[in-house]
Fold:
Amino acid sequence: MSLTRKIAHNTIIQIFGKAISTIIALIVASLLFRYLGKEGYGNYTTVMVFLQFFGIIVDMGLYIILTKKISEAGADESSLVGNIFTIRLISAVLFLGVAPLLVIFFPYPAVVKTGVALVSLSFLFVTLNQVLQGVFQKHLKMIRVTISEILGRMVLLIGTYFAVYLDLGLVTVLLVVVLSSFTNFLFTYIYSRKFVKIRLVFDFAVWRGIIKEAYPIALAILFNLVYFKADILILSLLKSQSDVGIYGAPFKILEVLVTFPAMFAGLAVPVLTQAFTQMDYVRFRRVLNKSFDFLAMTALPMIVGTIFIAHSVIDLIAGPDFAESGRVLQVLIVTTGIIFIGNLFGNAVVVVNKQKEILKYYMAIAVISVSGCLLLIPTYSYMGAAWMTVLSQSLITLATMYVVWRKTKIFPSMKFFTKALIACAGMAAVLKLLDGYSLLVIISAGMITYGSILFLLKGISKDLIKEIVSTRSEQ
Structure:
C-alpha cells in the first residue's frame, strides 16, 4: 500500500475513533453539566486547568521530538523511546508532585484542592501515554492507539454514570477520571511492546541532545498554555466558580473538537520530516498544502454552522442552567477553527527546526494575552476571556505560518480556502432560512449545502475521494 493511502487509512481510523471518543466525551460532559451545575462544574474546570500548567511543563515537547527523531533515517528507535520515556516519567513525578502542594496557597474551595491531588495521577498517566503515541505515528499503526483511547473513554463513561446516579460527588467523579487515564495508558503500553521494548534508559549523552532540542518547544508550549488557559485561571481568581462553569462548558466542547486537528497534524509530521530532511521541497509543499486544505475544509463550516446553532447545542448538551454559555460558544468556535490551522503550522515549525525562532512570538503573545485578560475579565467576565482567546490564537497561528514561510518560502495556496469560504457563505444563507427548525434538520441541511457547493466548485474531486477510500495496493 502506498504511503499516501497508509496515511489516509490511518486518518480514517483515527477519525472513526475520535468520533466515538467525541460522542462519549460529550455524553460525559452532559452528565457532569447537569449533575454539578455551574458552580460544581466551575470547580471541576479549575482542577483541570490548574494541573494543565504543570502537565505542560512535563510535556517538554517530547512527543513531537520523539515522532520527528524516530522518523529520521537510521534512527535508533529503541534507544530514543527508552530515553524519552524515562525523561518524561521523571519530570512527571517531580512537577506533578508539586501541584498538590502549591494549590494549598490558592483561594480555592477545599474540594478543588483535594481534586488537584487526585487528578495529578491522571495527568501522570496521560503524559506517559502521549509520549508512546509517537511510536504508533511513525509506524502508521494508529488503530491500537484508537482502541486504547476508546477503552479509556468507556471506563470514564460507565464510571461517571454510576457516580452521578449514586450521587457520589465531585471527588468520586475525579477518581473515575484517574481510572480512565490509567486504562488508556495501560493498553497503549501493552500495544507499544509489539514495535519497541519500553525500558528505562539513562543515557545522559542522549538526554543532553534531546533536552537541547526539546527546551525551545517546551517553552513554546508553556507560552501557548499561558495564552490558551490563563483566561480560565484568571477567571477563577477574579470571578465566581459559576462564571468559570459558564465559560468551562463551551471550552470543554472546544477541547473535545481540537483533538482532531492535533491527531491529523501528528500524522503529517513523519511525512513532512522525511521530505524536509531529504530536501524534497516539492513533496513538502504538496503535503503541507493538502493538509492545510483538509483542515480548512473541516474548520470553516464548523465555525459558520456553530454560530447558528450554538444556543441549541448548549441547551442539548448542558441544559438551561448554562444558557449564557451559548454566547461564549459562538466566540470560542472561532478559536477552535483557528487552532485547526495553527496545529499544522506549529508542528511544521518543529519539522523545519525553527522552534527557537518562534519563542519570541510566543512570549510576546503570552504577555498580550495575560494583560488582555487582566484588563477585560474584571468588566466583561467570560465574554472578555473568550474574545482574548480568539485574538491570541489568531496571532500565534499567523506567527507560525510566517516562521515556516521564512524558512521554506512555502505558503499554503488559498485557492481551496476561497472555494470553502464561498461554500460556507451558501451554507450560512440556507441556515438563516432554517432558523427555528430542529437541530437535526439544520445540521443535515448545512452539511448537504456545503458539500454540494464545494463539489460544484471542484473543491472536492472524484479522484481525491477515490484515493482516500481505495484499499488496493499501489504497485
User: Anything to note?
Assistant: The chain has 15 helices and no strands.
